[in-house]
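Minutes, project huddle
Topic: does the predicted pose make sense with zinc ion bound?
PN asked that the exact inputs be recorded in the minutes so nobody has to dig through chat later. Recorded below.
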Amino acid sequence: MSYSFEQHKIVGAIEADDPFWRSLEDGVLALPRCAGCHGWTWPAHHRCGQCGSWQFDWVPVKPEGYVFSYTRTRYAFDRVLERKDDVPYVTLVVELPEAGNVRLMGVLKGDETGLAIGARVRGSIDSPSAKTKFYPALRWEIEG
Amino acid sequence: MSRMRGATAIVGIGQTPYYKRGTSSEPELKLALQAITQAADDAGIDVRDIDGFISYASERSDPAKLMPALGTRQCRFASLVWIHGGALAGTLNIAAGAILSGQAEIVAVYRSMAESSNQRLRVAVAQNDTSSQYLVNGLDSPAQILALRSQRLMEHHGVPQSALYATVAASYYHARANPRAYGRNTEMTAEIYAAARMISEPYRLYDCSRENDGAACVLVVSAERAKDMKQTPAYVLSAPMGTMEGGGALEENWRPYYATAGQRELAERMWRESGYGPKDVDVAQIYMNMNAMGIGSMVDHGFFDFEEAGDFCTFENLIAPSGKLPINTSGGDLAEGFIHGMGLIPEAVRQIRGTSVNQVPGARLSLFTGGPGDLMSSTALLGSADTL
Ligand SMILES: [Zn+2]
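Predicted holo structure (tokens), as shared on screen:
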């Protein structure tokens, strides 16, 4: 099977997160854990800086966590113009306690009531679309 | 103390006017040539004798293109400092390294930008290395990414909106006296500030740096050579660059601390290398890609802590001549103009020379900081001869 994001690759950053996008497109949130020292390594990288291992296990993780920070975008920026009709929209940085408090980003979905640093959120997965640059995307909902 | 301490000095400054972004009739390369030749004239140096060239980030006016028009006799050293605006102060460290090791004698540190001959600044500076983790989630611009940090600075650490406004008010107050300042005629009141449109919360329009076309250059030579030159030397006491473990390209996963500028360890090194501390600083040019990030820089430098930010950051405390810490005395990145922070170095030098339009009387120690919140950053302390 060929993945949508692979046809629309964004290049230039660390580029070790293909398994993240692949599993997300398959409907599962998975994060890399070092096969040597078992530390969560995020953002995904090519080598574990703590123990020197080059091997990572991609472990399924429940998309549940807490808002670490957020911004409400009020202007349609140049390289994310696909979302211009959604302005204003809120992007969250979420800490996942189950995965060593690694922080993942994602757009807020649904009611904004209770939006604050520390709020509990639950994630779901959006299928690739123009808005997500044809990548699968996590979206977060505030837990009432 | 470091071997770099006081070993080099800035002896020439050059600056083109600030143009509205995309409206400079001159291309970037010509702006760079103008700034470099002005700096040479200012220093009383034959521009052909400049033998070292240093810039940073996405600079495109490289020395190979500049040399033929400068009549360069010999280019002996050329370097581009990594990452983005965080590299600003680190350029002086590289210059000092080149001079101390005998690789070059007269080093031009410069930056030129013209959106008319390049992309939109905020796109060009990203150098196409923005991770998919941001772009997929609607985050593109430094304004949005830094907003994540500042939301936490304000909501979690309690830095008040009034502190942000004080930096805006002080910057526009200083710009008014500066004929070069792009924002010199912009009226600024608390009402105008609060009514301006939101960009990416918590930032309003005036919390953000400008985007301008323009170029600036400073010339660095050895302290020995500086003694006999035309201008009062501004000695480089310390200009460390870098970041700590748990910093770097971590996509909002910075661990040791998150909401400030990532300059705490840099500032500690600078105080150690220079032998001075925050209480000794007379005047500061604080890089403000976004003003809350600049407040984070001041926290990291030890001027105040989170709880004190509201009391410290008032209009009266931040203005020349007699504020507790006059900042951005030319108007800075918010009100003078923004060419990736490069305008801050000439102003830091003018304060040592005693020639700023908003002079702090008798300024001896003049700080300027690199881009806050960058993946790596830098900071620098300049001093007069009697601080050595
Ligand atoms: Zn490991």
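Observations noted during the meeting:
- Chain A has a mean pLDDT of 96.
- The CA atoms of residues 67 and 119 of chain A lie 5 Å apart.
No decisions taken; revisit at the next huddle.
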